[in-house]
Amino acid sequence: MSDFADPTADGDRLKLGVVVPSSNTTVEPEFAHWVSNASVHAARMRLVDVTVDGLDTMADDAVAAAERLADADVDAVAYACTTGSLVHGHGFDAELEDRLGDAAGVPAVATALSVRRLFDALDTSRVAVATPYIDELNERERSYLDESGFDVACLDGRGIERNTDIGRLTPADAREQALAVLETAPDVDTLFVSCTNYPTLAVVDELAERGVSVVTSNLATLWDLSRVTGLDTDALPGDLPSPSSPTLD
């Protein structure tokens, strides 16, 4: 007999739907590891390279992916791609949430807005950002955060285009890059490690020992899913504020 727990044993278990790039190899294992009271179900959108053109083409399949997740009776849907949900600035992120929510018939969140909601809940004003992205996407992320009212003190990118190469990074890589960013901007109140394919959750607590709030794309998305589902966040890393229905226009 298998020693593994039966994920269907608890009939009240929440089901989280995630719409992810086809080349994302991090969302599902990170979510499954850090959330013990819900199951994770993914639908994939075609993406090989993390570029503006690639993200644009990928977004065309978002609604169909959400509709497929509705077949599994998920309790909520996340568009789990940071640059994919901010690449066209404000309005595009909220539109994604509306479109996916309508398609799946359940609450929907998009990672870029999830990050903003968590920043607001943390009273973030000045942020240091570490990403794996190429320069064009870094500048779009900087503009998005600037327009959201956050002072981006420093933004460092690794210049990686192939998404599977991003997925091969490790939490140790994230820690090294994040600490280097903090060295150049010691007066920030929040550190943000961007990209849902960048493994980060295992080093959140260690980074928080530097005396800053730590936000990562996957942490923010999970926190925001808890806002719309009542998911227990006690097992998540970091010192998270209560996800008590923050709202954004």
TrEMBL record:
It comes from the Archaea. The keyword Lipid metabolism does not apply. This is Maleate isomerase. GO terms for molecular function: isomerase activity. InterPro entries: Iso_Racemase_Enz_sf, MaiA/AMDase. Transmembrane segments: none annotated. Keywords: Isomerase. The keyword Isomerase applies.
